[in-house]
Structures are given as C-alpha cells and as structure tokens.
Amino acid sequence: MPIDIKVLSTTAMKTVFEELASAFERATGNRLSVTLGPSLRLEKQLGEGEAADMAIVSASGARDLVASGRMVAGSIVDIAKSSIGVAVQKGAPRPDISTVEGFKRAMLEAK
C-alpha cells in the first residue's frame, strides 16, 4: 500500500524535488508531500511539534532539533553545502561587512 512521506524542506531544495519527486514516486509507489520554506521557519515548526518524516534544514537547526529531542540523534546527514559571497566592481571600495551593522549599512547604501 502506498504511503505519503511528509517532507519539510528549505526552499533551496525546490528544484531538486521538482526534478526527482516524480521519478521517486514512480519507482516506489509512495507519494512525497513536500512543504518548502525558509529553514528558520521550518525549524520553528518542528521545534513546536510539527511532525515530518524527513526535514531538510540548516545544519545548526538540525543539531538544535536533535538536542531538543525533536529529531532522532544520529540521523543528520549532510546533503549540500551552501555559500554566499559578495563581489564588488573592479576599482570600487570594498564595503565593511565584518559585522551585522556593517552589512546592513552596505546594503542600504548600495546604489
């Protein structure tokens, strides 16, 4: 009998599920019920008791959920790494983004 597999996943995985969900469902006969959203929101939902068969959230969020007993210890698997970078035009001054306030200021002053 097919089962529904409830997945809470960070929006960064949207295209992965778009590409692979149909093939998974055809191969297994099971259905993926995927809810996408920002990792912090999903971590909050899980922390407040929402159930899921699988959660794809930030590594720190997953560790926090394990520590609070909301996720199974030993079940964390790294599946992706995400980096964000800042680049400036050649010759332009480098913004000071070494602090939260510096980053905010650089964003607000950007043209």
Name some characteristics of this structure.
about 110 residues; alpha/beta; D-Maltodextrin-Binding Protein, domain 2; three-stranded parallel β-sheet; 3 strands
Molecular structure report:
This protein is an alpha/beta fold and 111 residues long. It has a domain at 4-67: D-Maltodextrin-Binding Protein, domain 2, CATH 3.40.190. 39% of the residues lie in helices and 15% in strands. The protein has four helices and three strands, in the order E-H-E-H-E-H-H. The protein has helices spanning 14-28, 39-47, 59-67, 100-109, and strands at residues 4-10, 31-37, 54-56. The chain has a three-stranded parallel sheet. Helix 1 (14-28) links the parallel strand 1 and strand 2. The longest helix has 15 residues, at 14-28. It is elongated, with a radius of gyration of 19 Å. The model has no long low-confidence stretch (mean pLDDT 92).
Mean pLDDT score, rounded? 92
The protein's oligomeric status is: single chain
Low-confidence spans: none
Class by SSE composition: alpha/beta
Brief overview, please?
With 111 residues, the chain is α/β, with parallel strands linked by helices. 39% of the residues lie in helices and 15% in strands.
